[in-house]
Amino acid sequence: MRDRLLAAEKVKSIDWRGEALYLLDQRSLPFEENWLACADAQGVAEAIRDAVVRGAPAIGIAAAYGVVLAARERKAAGGDWVAALEDDFTLLADSRPMAANLTWALNRMRDRLRRIQASADALQVLEAEAVSIHESDREANLTMAQLGVELIRRHQGNAQAVLTHCNTGALATGGFGTALGVIRAAWLDGMIEQVYAGETRPWLQGSRLTAWELESEGIPVALNVDSAAAHIMKTKGVTWVIVGADIITANGDVANRIGTYQLAVNAMHHGVRFMVVAPSATIDMALASGEDIALEERDGSELLDVGGVRVGANVRGFNPVFDVTPADLIDVIVTEKGIVERPDAAKMAQLMCRKRLH
Length: 358
Ligand code: MRU
Fold this sequence. Notes:
Four Helix Bundle (Hemerythrin (Met), subunit A), 2 domains, 4-stranded mixed β-sheet, binds 5-S-methyl-1-O-phosphono-5-thio-D-ribulose, 42% helix, single chain, 11 helices, Rossmann fold, alpha/beta
């Protein structure tokens, strides 16, 4: 199956060309395909903050390349460039602090640097580390896709309707996608007859990105307003809700795009299974539970305009970007290290001791 999945990889949103990082600007999709060149850490941090690149794994990968660009500049400037690079780590870490993969990728780059310090080949070693972070996310996507398909097959042998939220596809990762990777692989295997994609107000990642990715591969997708989810679960024979994650805590709680929590509550009520798909880089064992997450809120004005046209009254908008789905509403978490059914702290700790499956 791995080769079939690789052959199906079409969209790419992160392109490292050696001299600069090129990002497919997700703000103008699907209407325009513009690539933005980032030549330094400042450019990468701005691209992350402004959602040119989004989705936790993609953010982590972009930040790793940002460190490479920063290291080149610092080394060329001379002096104690390793110490000076700390400012760039901070800049990148602050660009979108909610994504666990961002912290994870920056820690990996910093650990690598600590081991080599200012050695002659430090820049090459850092570049190789960033490329390896990118490649390992791509591999993790393939493993998770296969594990997710097995779960869908195990619970009901025929083609099914599934519901997803936000965008967790090629645009949000280094490869095939997390939740959307499972859906794409299940479709290739004849296990999906219909995908329902929530539009994901206010940035519309569902309408603009998920619908675009699925439609371009001929996967049957229907777009729904986020508030239609309970009705769809009740009337459309949905067997799985499949979503990604921005942070998974040590007890299996999941922070993801706003709206995910209400999907899990509705899924429980309607007997629909709830699957979270995320690489182990998204798991932060230092956070005991979702209570410990500082959830991102953005400016309320994002709710008052659609496409530059005012649609809201002149009031303050409350704009939480993420919510926390408690572990006891989750049937299964799929990672590249394996799956965790009915997650809890003990099972999550066991998972983190395992090696990657492939
Ligand atoms: O605000 P976004 O668009 O970055 O939110 C993205 C999500 O919530 C995704 O579900 C999550 O990052 C997983 S992406 C594979």
